[in-house]
């Protein structure tokens, strides 16, 4: 494994490590903010940070590339999070957690169909996917009864599919040769633009008093600076180095990080089923990434 590939794996791991802990900040913020408000504020803050860190304007070499950026903003920033949040209002979080983990499968299929230059799919990918999904199910349901809800589950499937499309779009964008921060910043701009109509639909409310409270400011900053500005740059960079399929496989790790964080931060007890699930998930990740 060369140095560039190693860096790609490290950045993917860093991204997932942060994304797997965001549920704590979101849970705290939901006491005063609505899901759409959290979504808008975190990406607006993320955009401001990216502009501050790298203010150089992106000049496109081909105007047709603008369509790809717009599509990436629509899928990865706007639709994915909206579909996921709405799905959570209809079905159990465990269902959503499992279904979202199907995103690597969608990514692999779409990559095979539309991106012939991407890494070829092998049997080990599907074996790894199956093993990882067993682990994710054990972690997410953890002994609870499976309760299907057609509307919520279909929305979660749509979210996973949209994220797969976003992964392929960022792979395409990486081939343009622009700086990763510049491209991520442009994707954020389009994501926020597409988000604006939903602010009206979901009764967006600007309450300045909420920002005065330290616990809200800290957690919103974590989501905006860490989970948005930093993580989308590192994720897009990993996709550029590893490819859409290999990077998306790291999504299997999100439930694992969530369980570990719950034990460390929230002092929750880890069950034998969750431990078994972590083992299966890590094994599936290893099988999918192994050459």
TrEMBL record:
Query: Which SUPFAM superfamilies does this entry report, sorted A to Z?
Result: Multidrug resistance efflux transporter EmrE
Task: Pinpoint the EamA domain residues.
Answer: 7-140, 151-287
Signal peptide boundaries: none
For this UniProt record, the keywords arranged alphabetically read as follows: Cell membrane, Membrane, Transmembrane, Transmembrane helix
Gene Ontology CC annotations of this record: plasma membrane
> Where are its TM segments located?
12-30, 36-55, 67-83, 89-111, 123-141, 147-166, 187-206, 218-237, 249-266, 272-288
- Name where it's found: Cell membrane
Membrane topology term reads: Multi-pass membrane protein
Record-stated family:
Belongs to the EamA transporter family.
Q: What is this protein called?
A: EamA family transporter
Source organism per entry reads Sporofaciens musculi
